[in-house]
Amino acid sequence: HATLDMYRSIGVEFVDPHVVYNATDASIFHPNGRVPFDRSRKTRLIAVSWSDNPHKGGPVYRWLENALDPDRYTFTYVGNTTEELTHAAVIPPVPSHELADILRQHDVFVTATEHDAYSNALVEALSCGLPAVYLDSGGSREAVKDAGFAFAEREQIPDLLDRLRDEYEARQAAISLPDAADLVDQYLRVLGLDLDGR
Question: Which of 44, 76, 140, 163 can pair with 89 through a Cys bridge, CB separation 3.0 to 4.6 Å?
């Protein structure tokens, strides 16, 4: 797993490792009521970060807002950043219910975060039905799987967005995340607890 490899790269050693992913609150982050995708309008991109650390992707988003074709895409940023975004719609941090509503009004999640083990923001967006274009770093590939595309260099993003737009329905249908009940079972197994409650 990329998550384990990331920790091994900084010298962390494991004994009998198990990766247990995280899930969202399905009563908040879900695709019900989302705005349907429509190629006849501009494709709505969104990025989210609570942290303004540059490793959360701010410099890439600043580059991207200028690289996007304004006739094909809009870009919304929710959260904190030290970058001055002049073409994106910038929304300050909002509570989870409001964030979920905003996510459901968009089509594609973009994340340039580096070294995240398994990004909550990415999982929340996927849970709301948004396929993703993401920096190939940390555990993002494990969350997205076939529901989007990875980039290594920011210059790849526009072409990947065009491809995702072309393949949107198939990539959205490929969203596959563990649910909370499965994760509870996994935690119990790791802890060596009896799943039957005996």
Answer: 76
What DSSP line would sit under 1-62, residue for residue? -HHHHHHHTTT---SS---------TTTS--TTPPPP-TTS-EEEEEEES---GGGSHHHHH
Residue 14 confidence (pLDDT): 74
Measured CA to CA, the distance from residue 103 to residue 56 in angstroms comes to 18
β-bridge partners, 48 = 78
| Residue predicted with more confidence, 10 or 29 | 29
In whole angstroms, how far apart are CA 36 and each of 3, 55, 99, 119, 125? 33, 32, 17, 25, 15
Q: Is the pLDDT of residue 185 over 90?
A: no
Digit-coded pLDDT (tens) for 46-101: 999 999 999 999 999 999 999 999 999 999 999 999 999 999 999 999 999 999 99
On whether the CB atoms of residues 136 and 27 are closer than 8 A, the answer is no
| HEC string for 114-128 | CCCCCCHHHHHHHHC
